[in-house]
């Protein structure tokens, strides 16, 4: 892990552990949204998949970090929680603390979420698929909803427009609907040029996209998500195989 590198840059891609309630708020999720098949992409150390499963949702998570042995991943997540908490505390003025109370409450909630994730990873490893955008090992239309938080736009300093378009099109391929949060970068800055370019490319590819307000703001200025919809293209299984084998899987 690298050190915190400056006022606008948290450093390496952070493996976080957001909670189910945070997901509900930042993606404006209703009970109806959780009735089908849902993919968390990238899932990191979030407890969303475990908590959604407990409520009857056919939930899965995908992330390249799941290629690590579970014990190593959990140890890494502990370090990442400390790094994320240190960043949020050092930059407290950039955040709205209403949802958590204060930095200590935020750290406590994330630690609880990470513990739920660790138990679920040990008990049900098949729910956590090792793969990375812009290539997902699932059939077309495998999910009713794909959720993606704090990767696209957040790391616009290192992920270019081409990557954003490819990643969004891939998520739209595997999901009937895609929700991406937030649409600002690490410093809370709006990205009008990047967003306009991405929307134009998606529209040309037949993917409907709109920016929609959500009832959540932790990072100041992060009050909206990008919502994508495309025509259903479910084709059934197009090959068998585990992630990484070159085949496509259908959860």
From TrEMBL:
GO molecular function: S-adenosylmethionine-dependent methyltransferase activity
Annotated InterPro entries: Methyltransf_11, SAM-dependent_MTases_sf
Domain of life: Bacteria
Pfam families: Methyltransf_11 (PF08241)
Residue ranges constituting the Methyltransferase type domain according to the UniProt record: 126-174
Name of protein: Methyltransferase type 11 domain-containing protein
């Amino acid at each position: 892990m690298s050190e915190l590198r400056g006022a606008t840059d948290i450093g390496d891609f952070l493996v976080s552990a957001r909670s189910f309630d945070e997901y509900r708020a930042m993606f404006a999720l209703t009970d109806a949204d959780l009735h089908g098949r849902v993919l968390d992409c990238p899932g990191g150390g979030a407890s969303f998949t475990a908590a959604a499963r407990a409520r009857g949702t056919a939930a899965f998570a995908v992330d390249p970090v799941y290629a690590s042995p579970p014990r190593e991943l959990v140890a890494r997540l502990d370090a990442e929680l400390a790094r994320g908490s240190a960043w949020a505390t050092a930059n407290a003025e950039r955040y709205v603390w209403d949802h958590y109370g204060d930095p200590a409450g935020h750290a406590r909630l994330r630690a609880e979420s990470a513990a739920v994730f660790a138990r679920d990873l040990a008990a049900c490893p098949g729910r956590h698929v090792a793969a990375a955008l812009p290539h997902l090992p699932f059939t077309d239309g495998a999910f009713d909803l794909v959720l993606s938080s704090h990767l696209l736009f957040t790391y616009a300093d290192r992920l270019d427009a081409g990557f954003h378009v490819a990643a969004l099109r891939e998520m739209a391929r595997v999901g009937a609907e895609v929700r991406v949060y937030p649409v600002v970068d690490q410093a809370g800055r709006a990205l009008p040029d990047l967003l306009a370019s991405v929307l134009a490319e998606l529209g040309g590819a037949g993917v409907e996209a709109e920016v929609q307000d959500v009832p959540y703001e932790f990072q100041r200025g992060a009050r909206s998500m990008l919502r994508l919809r495309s025509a259903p293209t479910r084709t059934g299984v197009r090959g068998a195989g585990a992630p990484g084998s070159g085949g496509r899987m259908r959860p």
